[in-house]
Amino acid sequence: MKLFASDYDGTFLRKKRSANEIAHNIHQVKKWRKSGNIFAFVTGRSITGMRLSQLRGCVYDYIISLNGGIVIDKHGVIIFRRRIRQEVAKELIEIVQRKTNYYHMTDGFVGHYNSAFTFGKGTYFKNWLKVMSHVSPRYNLKIEDALKRPVLQITLSLPSEEEAIEFVNILNKNYGEELSAYSNNGYVDISAPNVSKATGINSVAKIHNIETRDIYCMGDSYNDISMLKAFKGFCPIETNEEIKKYAKKEYANVGNAIRAIRV
User: Fold this and answer.
1) Which helix (H) or strand (E) holds 262?
2) CA distance 135 to 51
3) Which of 51, 93, 109, 174 stands 20 to 30 A from 133 (CA)?
4) 246-258: pLDDT as tens digits
5) Burial class (CB within 10 angstroms; exposed 0-12, middle 13-18, buried 19+) of 154
6) What distance lies between CA 204 and its chain's CA centroid?
7) Residue 35 contacts by C-beta under 8 Å, 6 or more apart in sequence?
8) Is residue 47 very low, low, confident or very high in pLDDT (cuts 50, 70, 90)?
């Protein structure tokens, strides 16, 4: 038995993807699982934020969400969860509010969402409305109510990837024993300490007694580095050079990577 873990945004769903590519990815995942192997999505998103309906029936065994902060199986059962200490979460929210007007916190399923964006007319505005119609019912808690629930992740958006990386470095330096912070294409994901995509994958591997040599993963951003280093890591060909140096091979898409392993 082997395990393949795929990042979601930018990897399974590449920015320049086509409908044919998505179908190809799904087809290869089905073949992979039919052969008795395990497939998992591993993402910085919350579970409800993944909008899995757009994957047209892709079947998975696990979702490793919030950069490893929570893991659920295909039936929705939580098999692992690690929270940010409540006192730390309250302090972080105050810092985040001074930094940006676009942030949210979640327990993996519901939470608080804050956005002060203004949009013009056009396609992007319509797409944003579709996203918010899905997200808002699950992220409509008041901030004080969200802080009473387990806070597994706080996410904020900054103007550039450089600013996100700088802020991550500050957080990890000042709160190193209280959190794990990651940069993800201009976003900053703040999780519980000692949480990463690699730890999330390991929690799944232990359930099935899968050895490290039989674990494969694919990702494209800074929050994927932990798993690219820990396992047989791949990346999409358009990934930036800083991330590529941690990957053993490059593939056009997830389907091609899985097919190469199966051969």
Assistant:
1) helix 254-262
2) 9
3) 93
4) 999 999 999 999 9
5) buried
6) 16
7) 262
8) confident
- The two tokens of residue 16 are 């320049």
Eight-state DSSP code of residue 177: T
Closest CA to 161 of 182, 183, 181: 183
Two structure tokens written together for 181:
């912070």
Enter the DSSP assignment of 165.
H
For tokens 């091609």, the residue is 256
pLDDT digits (tens, 9 = 90+) for 183-214: 887 899 999 999 999 999 999 999 999 999 99
How far is the CA of 91 from the CAs of 6, 84, 102, 147, in angstroms?
33, 11, 17, 11
Give CA angle at 216 (256, 235), nearest 5°. 55
SS3 call for 236? strand
Q: What is the pLDDT of residues 108-159, one digit of tens each?
A: 888 888 865 444 444 444 444 445 445 555 667 888 999 999 999 999 999 8
**In terms of residues, how long is the chain?**
263
The number of C-alpha atoms within 13 Å of 79 and in the hemisphere containing its C-beta is 22
Give the N- to C-terminal CA distance of the chain in Å, as an integer: 15
Looking at residue 55, what DSSP letter applies? G
